[in-house]
Amino acid sequence: MQQAMLLCNGVQTHVMTEGRWVEEGLSQTGSKDLVIVIPGNPGIPSFYSGFIKSLKSRLPSETPVWTVGHAGHVQPPKNLCFMSEDDSDKPVYTLQDQLEHKVAFIKQYVPKDAKLHLVGHSIGSWCILQLLKDPEIAKQVVRCYLLFPTIERMAETPNGKFLTNFVLRAATLIVFLAWIFSFFPVVLQSILIRIFGGFFAGVTNKSIKPVRQLLEPPVLDRVFKLAQDEMVKVRERDDELISNYEDKLWVYYGATDGWTPQNYCTELKAKHPDINAQICKRGFRHAFVLTDEVEVGKMVGDIISETMSNNP
Questions:
Q1: pLDDT per residue as tens digits for the range 221-274
Q2: Yes or no: is domain 2-154+234-310 CATH 2.40.50.140?
Q3: Where are the annotated coiled coils located (predicted)?
Q4: Rounded alpha-carbon distances, angstroms, from residue 308 to 34, 275, 302
Q5: Each residue of 172-198: pLDDT tens digit?
Q6: H or E element: which one contains 133?
Q7: How distant, in Å, are the alpha carbons of 51, 142, 160, 224 from that of 66?
Q8: Which residues of 1-37 are buried (b: 16+ CB within 10 A; e: fewer)?
Q9: Which residues touch 61 (CB under 8 Å, ≥6 apart)?
Q10: φ, ψ for residue 17 (rounded to 5)?
Q11: Model confidence over 21-67: pLDDT tens digits?
């Protein structure tokens, strides 16, 4: 696994890969398939390290997997923060900013002959659907794999209501507490994350580092503001877009997901009978990267491998 901060659209961006590094391009032999993972919110690639490792294990050796972090969701090292063309200290990155950031990444780093497999988690699924509106990107896409996709009516979901009515109202206080937390020794931070994160969210030792990245006050503030923007912007499902590309979509809903209720999947299939959409029968959580990353990675990797076999 390789990772680094890359400048993209004026922002130092955390990128993590399994297989060839971003700036190495694709293998000169074998297929030109490339898997890009767009995370949910928070868009911190380290949360996805186990997932992409598991996913990569099911693919041909020459097929790389890249995870692109969201703009502003990982604080760059201090020696990178003040580069003249760096916009990493911007206080807010809207949903549209994040979309433009992903478009810029693909156009800057993805070879023109690459055959793209786009994997989106949560709001990353919304970003992927929007990417299909770009003709240059759409023609490179072989298939999109949307996991627990928040692509419609987010504010109307149980989790959306809780976020709006409680979490976002307390966001300023939570960021202030994160600022106090930042003065604690790293060892104490890790212990507290393990105790409280494990109890409330299933955080394990492997997730302590990305949780510490999330609790950087500027990052946490941007995460909350992006979530607030999602509640406003992600409303009606884009049925015209889905109709145009439904043969390229594989959609996976949770069985008990407070962000993507089962009726959203049922309604999607009623409107688009031929779409490949299903409800999880294996008990995977929306935040699968905390507890089920290996199993979900193998599942998605197998589906991508099958798709590659059918599209040589």
A1: 999 999 999 999 999 999 999 999 999 999 999 999 999 999 999 999 999 999
A2: no
A3: none
A4: 10, 19, 10
A5: 999 999 999 999 999 999 999 988 876
A6: none
A7: 11, 16, 29, 25
A8: eebebbbbbebbbbbbbbbbebeeebbeeebbbbbbb
A9: 19, 30
A10: -135, 150
A11: 998 888 887 789 999 999 999 999 999 999 999 999 999 999 999 99
Phi and psi for 164 in degrees, rounded to 5? -70, -45
Spot the catalytic one: 88, 122, 125, 207.
122
The SS3 of residue 146 is strand
Strand partners, 13: 6
Catalytic-residue membership of 57: no
Give percent of the chain above pLDDT 90. Answer: 85
pLDDT at 206: 87
Q: What torsion, rounded to 10 degrees, do the Cα atoms 234, 222, 165, 198 define?
A: 110
Q: Is 257 annotated as catalytic?
A: yes
87 is catalytic: no
What are the Cα distances from residue 69, in Å, to 32, 216, 238, 261, 288? 23, 15, 25, 26, 17
